[in-house]
Amino acid sequence: MSILVLGIGNLLLGDEAIGVRIVEALEQRYLLPPHVEVLDGGTSGMDLMDLMANRDHLIVADAVLTGDEPGSVVVLRDDEIPAMFTRKVSPHQLGLADVLMALRLTDEFPARLTLVGVVPQTLEPGIALSPVVRQAIEPALQQIMAALHTEGVSRIPAEVADVAGH
Prior knowledge:
Helix content is 36%, strand content 22%. The protein is α/β, with parallel strands linked by helices.
């Protein structure tokens, strides 16, 4: 079993950083088993192809532009994700779409794919998340944990792991 939780985002464009902030919260709060890799992918695009290839489950956290209210958490799975690329889903759409297409062409596409997205309020330059998007970190994180749970991944809160000496 090989699972990658990938946060995508630009830390300099306000709410565009939400994917990175979600995976930071995941790493800070939970101790996950060795077969679950958590990665801040930033704005790397095609550079991430090798890391995403042949995963049993790829879970991506990102800002998504769906027309829903800012701060809304959107979860898409498997075939729903490429279908959404017919319109702009994410500020990284081209990078992520290109990587996913390349993985399909090379027969290295992940067995399962989950996108946990948060609708941004602002993509203006700045290093802070808007309050409404900051509040979406917790529900988005819970969606990632639910996706991991479907894979049989149990998580241990980091503070419990520290006390237990893990």
